[in-house]
Amino acid sequence: MALIEVKNLSKTFKKPIRGNGVLSMIKTLFSRKYESIEAVKDVSFSIKQGEIVGYIGANGAGKSTTIKMMCGILFPTNGEVIIDQKSVLKYRKEINQEIGVVFGQKTQLWWDIPLIETFKILKAIYSVSDEDYEERFNYLCDLLDLRSFLNQNVRSLSLGQRMRADFAASLIHNPKILYLDEPTIGLDVLVKDKIRKAIKELNHHYNTTVILTTHDMKDIEELCDRIIIIDKGSILYDGNLEDIKFKFGNIKNIVFPRFEDFDENKIKEFNKAINIEIDDNIRLSFSLNEVDLDALLLLLISEYKISDFKIFDIGIEDITKELYAKNEEEK
């Protein structure tokens, strides 16, 4: 039985239409016209207890809006969210006892008091028993290495320390479900790695269900067996991560250092199906169904004298791009 059921969820926002100039702005005070923006369109999925699910998409795709409706922060225009067989709208207070939330760009910590006092306040808010609090508090302190800054005011913490503290704060009451909205944004590599390990450990130790939105594809590949890809408010894919990698398994990437004499036209003349991206390096992406790999390598070695290059399979970021492109073609 599913722990979370999202049924035909939609959210439409009304945005006032404003003209240019002061006179037009004054007119809108008395006669407002609105345009409707569909942030989420008829989204449905279910999640079992203990799953770690990646909910991914581009900026503005509808990820955070969906998460906020699943938390009860936003009311849906249509549809509903059922958690543990209870409607989020009808049993919001009760369900909030069962969920934890981390928003990467916001905090639930009190800035002007020591971190440990924040945990004590949350203990009282969620009516956590002394015994459960001690067990959970010590476990999280060890897992996230919090003890060295427990007595510091939150405002004095570094970003990495604050994110670890926010992560712990969302788990003090031992929720069944943890929503993570961009939890590693802006963090350095070491802190990201610590957060990822903590998510894995919590899922294993407490069977916590995790719904993760992120732009860091390493988060997805390291943590999630299942992904849901959303674009412009609609679901493009919902399934196993390995299945979608297998589906796009014939896609290869060749990466080599950028150089001044590189001519994109020669690559396009060889085969138009090759996608070229140029930044610090040059990246060629293509399907083995459309491009002869041996012939392409011969071209690179003979024409460009390239000897330093890497060949690797497609990653989840490339798969997402492919799905977006196909979705646009079908419209």
**Whole-Å distance between the termini?**
35 Å
Percentage of residues in strands:
25-35%
- Output the strand order for the largest sheet: 6-7-8-3-9-10
Summarize the helix and strand pattern as letters: EHEEHEEHEHHHEHEHEEHEHEEHEH
Radius of gyration: 24 Å
**Structural class given helices, strands, pairing?**
alpha/beta
Q: How many helix segments? A: 12
Main β sheet profile: 6 strands, mixed
Gross morphology is globular
Mean pLDDT: 87
What proportion of the residues is helical, as a percent range? 25-40%
- Tally of DSSP β-strands: 14
| Unreliable stretches covering 5 or more consecutive residues | none
What does this structure look like?
The protein has 331 residues and is of the alpha/beta class. 37% of the residues lie in helices and 27% in strands. The strands form 3 sheets. It has a 6-stranded mixed β-sheet with strand order 6-7-8-3-9-10, sandwiched between helices. The protein has 12 helices and 14 strands. It has helices spanning 22-28, 63-71, 92-96, 115-125, 130-144, 159-169, 189-206, 217-223, 241-247, 264-270, 293-303, 316-330, and strands at residues 4-16, 34-47, 52-56, 78-83, 86-87, 99-103, 177-181, 209-213, 226-231, 234-240, 251-257, 275-278, 281-287, 310-313.
